[in-house]
Amino acid sequence: MSHILIVEDHQKIRANLVFMLKKQTDLAIIDVASAEEAQASLAAQQPELMLLDIRLPGMSGIELIQALGDKLPPTIVISGEATISETVEALRLGVYDFIEKPVSRERLLRSVRNCTEHHQLKSRLARLEADLAEAPTIIGDSPAITFLVQQCAKVAPTDGRVMIRGESGTGKELVAQYLHQNSKRAGGPFVKINCAAIPANLIEAELFGHVRGAFTDARNDKAGLFETAHNGTLFLDEIGDMDLSLQARLLRVLEDGSVRRLGDTRERQADVRVICATHHDLEQAVADKTFRQDLYFRLNTLPLHIPPLRERGDDIRLLFFWFLSFYSRRHRLAAKTVDKAALQKLQDYAWPGNVRELRNLTERLVILGQDPVTCDDLPATFHNLAPVPALVATAAANQPLEILPLREYRNQSERAYITAVLEACQWNFSQAARKLAIQRTYLYQKTQSLGIEKPTQD
Questions:
Q1: Domain 314-382, what architecture?
Q2: What pairing do the DSSP bridges indicate for beta strands 162-165 and 302-305?
Q3: 167: number of CA atoms within 13 Å, CB side?
């Protein structure tokens, strides 16, 4: 039961405080006459607020505050006999306010309202900070993620430009934030823009800024994102969707760090680390003349590949339980359990939307799912299995079809396909990686995780 605790030895004053507060709050009110009684009440349940007299029989109010230490609830001291030193000591020990007797109704109610609001804000901030402190930037212990984290640890402390590749929803922005937080620019701004989400005619002004009168709606000077990110990191998401004309301007900034606002004649310097991300095949875009080759070489200094969720094995389980705990705390709901059949469905699902899809589904299950979560709580996509592809059906035409768990079948298929490509390339990993459109280092990692070994020569 939420309540206000009044600690006052004078019976009439105590009754008056109870009377003034009863009409102004829905909280229950408990009143006691001594610090010793207050200790017993506090041991049973913490109040939302404590009104405390300094002069009490036996233990004083100051001694009670000292005894409570970190367990002191939001407290307002009410006293007509406290010395200056006692007042200072009470405030030093964490008391929110000090009201002199006789107490006016307006002064008391204002102080109580401000104190409770202040405490609520502090509690909310503490919860947010705890969520941020607990939230790992990159979750997983699969070989693919372990390799990615190792690469990030090498890349983050540098000022090298990074190109993050991966399917939509794999967490490219999260990796960019991880790189910024672990760089020497961590104290500077992290500025992000989605190049695909802003119309081509507006993104130039967003990136480079403008001066008043540069175009119809330019009523004031405005700094662009390059200037905003000075001494920090600029994250250009979906760089593959940037207009060709804008690519030329971006190349100029990358060459000398100078930025010119639209409609301006003055150059400004911007010390910015650029991190880009895309789910497109930029090499093909260069070949198709939709992405500048010189810009590609400028941006692709340090390439990082984020594997899709379907290639991360037991990371699915780790991520699911982390999101389950996170959203239970965020929505202030009891954490649910999950039955084995539902967990297996999650594990075997292909996750076309990657981590984003898993995150959104977990939040939905936290709010709408039963406890324990069962297969009935999962969307229809988890129950409608796709038909066997024609290629697989052809391969199995002359032999009985062996039914396997989806993950095992997927690993076998990948193992067979990657082995075939390597054999066709005579085990030249660089050539095979180009044909598979993946990084050579990632191909090495895949062969290790799938147990693919080059045959020994007799």
A1: Orthogonal Bundle (1.10)
A2: parallel
A3: 13
